């Protein structure tokens, strides 16, 4: 870092000075250098300002850890640790060893094991499945004329109870009439091997929108996310127990307003 | 909770922050954190008792790179949390902070990771070199590039030159 022969300070050492990674001795030498070398001093000042600003940005965004945060982290580590133990014990089961031997013999067994293993990584599958299930459900059911839903909105109470029971929660069917969309009805769709609720809404121009609500026991509260594929736009988000996704072909701005309205009611 | 898990617990804020600096999205950073913790817990017997934070961050870095490869062909997602959910706390100088955050977002991943490890996690250059499995010279060149890029972006907004963020 130091160019002794020319008695200069290298740029690497200037970085190390800013980042407080020099010995006390070298720090003094660099400080003396900066007094006489204003160009380097300016450089160091600008980097120090960057450091301070970035440090402040991240300190502010991740403020002091509260007791509740620590308790949540303890729970998370314990849950993941338990999950590992279960995986470990499953791995050692004799039937798995036999199945592993059969992998080479039949592609079907291999595929089945692959699915099992992948599903074992529950959260990952869920996070990537939710918007996909939402998009596909919209794509499959929104074009249906006669049977877009299994239970129509004229049986709202039954619909609410039925779907709520299948996804293990009380489900007040969200109302987005003030955003121009009336509830058509709902149905069950599969998500990560379990039932999730799909509600379908329609505006006066026949544009449809689907809402998926699926249970995710390992869920974490998350912000809104957006994805777009084949003209179908999907907004999705989650809380500690459920994931939510809406899909439609309406404008992104309109989708955003609808996502906000639904988020408030769910 | 065993000793390993207790040690892990004390680094959770750092790990969460590092996940965010890698993925730049609230949801993806939580996914990354979970995956990383799961892996670290599964491999805890292979930890040699040296710097645990650095060991777990190395796992996270590798998982993030693997994810990038795996999901390269998936539809793009865009974080929009700021558009919809009001941020809990805004900075005293939101304009400057937003620009700085924007500048960080624009950095190439390799440069951003080094910058965040240095500034936010206070890792030494040698630790970063070990963690990312790169020569220390590469750490320095990435750090230098990151700082120059940020300065260039911020100069365009007159942020660093005329405003003191603190």
UniProtKB/TrEMBL annotation, chain B:
- Key word Transcription present: yes
Under InterPro entries, the record lists:
PhyR_sigma2, RNA_pol_sigma-70-like, RNA_pol_sigma-70_dom, RNA_pol_sigma70_r4_t2, RNA_pol_sigma_r2, RNA_pol_sigma_r3/r4-like, WH-like_DNA-bd_sf
Domain of life, per UniProt, equals: Bacteria
What processes in GO biological process is this protein linked to? DNA-templated transcription initiation
Q: Which GO terms describe its molecular function?
A: DNA binding; sigma factor activity
Keyword Transcription carried by entry: yes
What positions does the domain PhyR sigma2 occupy? 12-60
Q: Which UniProt keywords apply?
A: Sigma factor, Transcription, Transcription regulation
Show where the RNA polymerase sigma factor 70 region 4 type domain sits. 99-149
CDD domains recorded for this chain?
Sigma70_r4
Hey, which family's this protein in? Belongs to the sigma-70 factor family. ECF subfamily.
State the protein's name. Answer: RNA polymerase subunit sigma-70
